[in-house]
Design a protein that fits this description.
The structure holds 2 protein chains of 2 kinds. By secondary structure, chain A is mainly alpha-helical. Chain A has one domain. Chain A is built from 7 helices and no strands. In chain A, helix 2 packs parallel to helix 7 and helix 5 packs across helix 7. Chain A is globular and about 50 Å long. Chain B is mostly helical. Helix content of chain B is about 80%, strand content about 0%. The relative contact order of chain B is 0.18. The longest helix of chain B has about 35 residues. The chains are: A mainly alpha, B mainly alpha.
């Protein structure tokens, strides 16, 4: 048991690195949840492919702009803070997270109304691109609260409304 | 030696909650009929994880506090009181909600899963990172009351 806990200490020491690690984990979770949503809606709503060619082009719709933006934009935020956040910041970003959660519960509801697989795929990949954009450029508590909101919105929709 | 004792307590509590978890899964085995139920249960188990990452992200300080004897001595009494308080309050509130809505918790397994998985995750997080004995008391009380409720008080 002690060994299990001691592996914790071999992680990067500074708080900035820890925050970065948590942010990475969070974005992996969101990616998994989005894939989960796609699979769930695909099987549950019996989606059909209306036009096969559209499935191939669905990802390009959002991946191409993403790559372009990523290549021309510099980092938008200063990165993670080393120290603590003040109480005011915590309240502010908590409210942002709750807001994004509500918005994403609605967006997931809209996704569940989609009738064709290719449109669902395009929508999911668009959200995924947004997540990767946040992951790459807005490495900050703002990005973290948005990603958390997305994840919680999907989960809350799945639990209570699906 | 002290650390060892705490670890045993940790193992026992986690073991109890995992047991409740397995029991809930078997209890709901007949309920799981469609793919939808599986999705709901998976979602309710996953629910606390992004929140915990977020909380950890904000409250990055106080990493691995020293679990000294003085700290334990000081927090022993309030932690025990909080344990009993949380136990009684959550047991009563669960009974009250069942009484008011005239529904059994077993019929709404999603909520049982939600309570269980949220409490386990926060317990593990608190134990590994903050080791706040008062929070430990509250969470143990909630877990215990859920276990008692599911095992003994539900007909």
């Amino acid at each position: 048991m002690n060994q299990v806990f001691n592996t914790q200490n071999s992680k990067p020491k500074t708080n900035t690195n820890k925050r970065e690690l948590l942010f990475t984990f969070q974005s992996i979770i969101v990616t998994a949840l989005l894939a989960f949503t796609a699979i769930a809606f695909f099987y549950y709503n019996d989606l059909a492919i209306l036009k096969g060619i559209k499935v191939i082009f669905a990802p390009f719709l959002s991946v191409v702009p993403l790559l372009f933006i990523l290549s021309i934009l510099r980092d938008l935020r200063n990165g993670f803070k080393e120290g603590n956040y003040t109480k005011q910041e915590i309240i502010k970003f908590g409210i942002i997270t709750i807001g994004i959660t509500v918005v994403f519960t609605g967006i997931t509801y809209l996704l569940s109304q989609i009738g064709a697989l290719e449109i669902l795929l395009a929508a999911i990949i668009a959200i995924l691109s947004a997540v990767f954009f946040l992951r790459a450029k807005i490495k900050d508590i703002l990005g973290m609260s948005i990603i958390t909101g997305i994840a919680e919105g999907i989960i809350i929709y799945m639990i209570f409304l699906f | 030696m002290k650390l060892k004792q705490v670890n045993i307590a940790f193992l026992v509590t986690t073991g109890v909650s995992v047991l409740v978890f397995i029991y809930l899964v078997f209890l709901g085995y007949d309920e799981i009929k469609t793919f939808k139920d599986v999705i709901k249960i998976v979602a309710s188990i996953l629910f606390p994880i992004p929140l915990l990452f977020f909380v950890r992200f904000i409250l990055i300080e106080h990493f691995m506090p020293t679990n000294t004897d003085a700290y334990k001595q000081k927090n022993k009494k309030p932690a025990t009181l909080l344990l009993i308080g949380a136990f009684v309050i959550s047991l009563l509130s669960m009974q009250l909600i069942e009484f008011l809505t005239q529904q059994q918790l077993e019929n709404n397994l999603i909520f049982a899963h939600l309570i269980n998985s949220t409490t386990i995750s926060s317990y593990v997080l608190n134990f590994i990172l903050y080791n706040n004995l008062k929070v430990n008391g509250i969470l143990s009380g909630v877990l215990l009351s859920l276990a008692v409720h599911v095992f003994f008080l539900s007909v």
